Amino acid sequence: MKKIFFPLITVIIFAFVFTGCKLAGLDYQKDTPFDATIRDSKINMNALEFMKSRTDLFSSMIEGVTYAGLLDEYTAPDRTFLLLTNRALSDETYAPSGTNVMGSYFACNKLLNPLYNPAIPANGPQYFTPDNWAVYPVAQVKRFFLYHIVKEPVTYRNAKAFVTFYESVAYAGVGDTAKVSFHLTNDRNAYLYVNGFVGSRNPAQAPRTSGIDCTNGVIHVMDDFVIPPTRIILGTK
Known about the structure:
With 237 residues, this protein is an alpha+beta fold. The protein has one domain: FAS1 domain (Roll), CATH 2.30.180. Helix content is 24%, strand content 16%. The protein has a four-stranded mixed sheet with strand order 4-1-9-8. Strands 5-6-7 form a three-stranded antiparallel sheet, with no helix packed on it. A two-stranded antiparallel ribbon has the order 2-3. β6 (179-184) and β7 (192-194) form a beta hairpin. It is globular, with a radius of gyration of 28 Å. The protein starts with 7 loop residues before the first helix and ends with a helix.
């Protein structure tokens, strides 16, 4: 049988590795106890109560749904609620940029200034950004918010890795395009995207906070509002 010899330098390296810490007056690294935990996403509130508990985020939405007479819709069971922050609705500084954001609802839906006169600059610009919901027709505001409520809960547990459309509460039947899509990215991050379909007029939006399990469904908090698909995208035309 052949004898195996270790060069002297190899023996010295091993000795240093195993004794180096002690020679330097340091203790060996000790194991740290690890307790695995899972974040509890449940809240003991319905969607309306949650909105009212965070007026710092949803004051504009509360005003809008109140103006449209929709408060009861946020207490209905088994729904997905896309709750829109003040940035998504009324932030004047969050304006259309021509990139991958739409801007706030008010900034994207400016109104004609009835006093506009290019010869009289003091009358203001041709279009102005509203600062309240009352300047819009009730029917417009109502349909807008109903589109951001889906008729069934869509969560990480049942969302698919491909674009899937669901009927919103605004959906009125055949020919209507008031559907909302959800999909998870097919990677280890598995981000949830809303209306990430090809050809979307408002690029796919990832909620700022998703998967909040409220007592009447699931909440996804959005910093951007979403826009319905066209009939061509839905394949109905």
